[in-house]
């Protein structure tokens, strides 16, 4: 404070300078801010800043590593896709033969056409009737779309879906559903 006071222009009298010095001291005392405390706080803030900067550098390095990993994974997936594309195209052709004969009703619910139904061998469709199959398939789609899961045979019976093994086999033959080893059914479309 004395250096600030001493550097003031000389046009002030000595009494004026003493008053300014006392006033500055009083302001420091009344404000409750001790310059030593302010300097200590400033040092703590600088240390926190340095620590945060170091952590930010670590995070940026981790992000660069993870982005490199993601890029490598994407490149691997691209290579696999290019390698598998001929086989997938052939499978899609067979899949679309059946599915082009499926009608889409409101809310995305699908219904089998007569030609799709008749494309299933008689030994598989046995005594199944198309209207009953479409009714069951609609119920199955509605439930599985709402719950986004699979259904066990037991649960289908509890829900009183008009289920039969023959209907499931027809839908499975048309690759509309998949039945896992536990007997749970899930939609493929």
Automatic annotation (TrEMBL):
<keyword id="KW-0158">Chromosome</keyword>
<dbReference type="GO" id="GO:0008017">
    <property type="term" value="F:microtubule binding"/>
</dbReference>
<keyword id="KW-0498">Mitosis</keyword>
<keyword id="KW-0206">Cytoskeleton</keyword>
<feature type="domain" description="Ska2 N-terminal">
    <location>
        <begin position="3"/>
        <end position="90"/>
    </location>
</feature>
<comment type="similarity">
    <text>Belongs to the SKA2 family.</text>
</comment>
<keyword id="KW-0995">Kinetochore</keyword>
<dbReference type="GO" id="GO:0000940">
    <property type="term" value="C:outer kinetochore"/>
</dbReference>
<keyword id="KW-0131">Cell cycle</keyword>
<keyword id="KW-0493">Microtubule</keyword>
<keyword id="KW-0137">Centromere</keyword>
<dbReference type="GO" id="GO:0051301">
    <property type="term" value="P:cell division"/>
</dbReference>
<protein>
    <recommendedName>
        <fullName>Protein FAM33A</fullName>
    </recommendedName>
</protein>
<dbReference type="InterPro" id="IPR042091">
    <property type="entry name" value="Ska2_N"/>
</dbReference>
<dbReference type="Pfam" id="PF16740">
    <property type="entry name" value="SKA2"/>
</dbReference>
<keyword id="KW-0963">Cytoplasm</keyword>
<dbReference type="Pfam" id="PF11362">
    <property type="entry name" value="DUF3161"/>
</dbReference>
<dbReference type="GO" id="GO:0007059">
    <property type="term" value="P:chromosome segregation"/>
</dbReference>
<keyword id="KW-0132">Cell division</keyword>
<dbReference type="InterPro" id="IPR026762">
    <property type="entry name" value="Ska2"/>
</dbReference>
<dbReference type="GO" id="GO:0000278">
    <property type="term" value="P:mitotic cell cycle"/>
</dbReference>
<dbReference type="GO" id="GO:0005876">
    <property type="term" value="C:spindle microtubule"/>
</dbReference>
